[in-house]
Amino acid sequence: MTEILESVGRVVVKWLRYVGEVVLLIMETIRQLRYPPRMRHVFAQMSHLGVDTLPIVTLTLLCTGMVMTIQVAHEFIRFGAQSTIGGVIAIAIGRELGPVLVGVVAAGRVGAAITAEISTMKVTEQIDALRVMATSPVNYLVVPRMIACMGMVPLLTVYGDVIGVLGGWAIATFRSGISSFLYWNSIDVFVTSHDITGGLVKAAVFGFIIAILGCYCGLKAPEGAEGVGIATTRSVVSSIIMIFVANCFLSLVLYQ
User: Fold this and answer.
1) Most Cβ neighbours (<10 Å): which of 41, 109, 214, 247?
2) What letters, b where the CB count within 10 A reaches 16 and e where it falls short, cover 193-225?
3) Is the pTM here over 0.70, yes or no?
């Protein structure tokens, strides 16, 4: 019994330490925002983290919109609700599927890239060199990536929403025989601006999560070449879990 309690205690202490260190990094990042960010670094990260992610976002959301329409169009037509298909697809993508799938894709690609880069810098002692030069690693490394992620993930979400709706339109029109006017008119009737802005709020939060956890896992990477792989895996898994947890709470707050 004592061994079980000790094991549980070690796990609890480990997770509390993890949460505390992440909170401290968030507070330090917010404090460093008092100083003007290096916009050259911010734009470089936006290009690397955002533009290079477009192809996979395109494929993911296009297939998602098409598959959703394939699944629901037949049932809606059977019950005479074909005039709502476009609106249902747009609301589902705008509120949930768009921001969540873009967040997961970004966590897998962007979060891994951030962690691998920073953990490699730690292993090769470049972060120690920054401290020697009286440069804050948080200001130099974390802040530009956080700003870039919080800016690019919502933009990628808007792009993904459009691609997903277009994929749904293609299936609805060319496979299910629904007229283009009926599809787009249902979007105009049922979709409100809050359906889209709520998804963008989620996307911004997801971008913040990806950047913070990616940087944290990179800064806390174990020593040696093996530590880079361990930190990258930890970053991706933690980011995806937190995206789903945050999505649950944000949905309760935004769409009561």
Assistant:
1) 214
2) eebbebbbebbbbbbbbbbbbbbbbbbbbeeee
3) yes
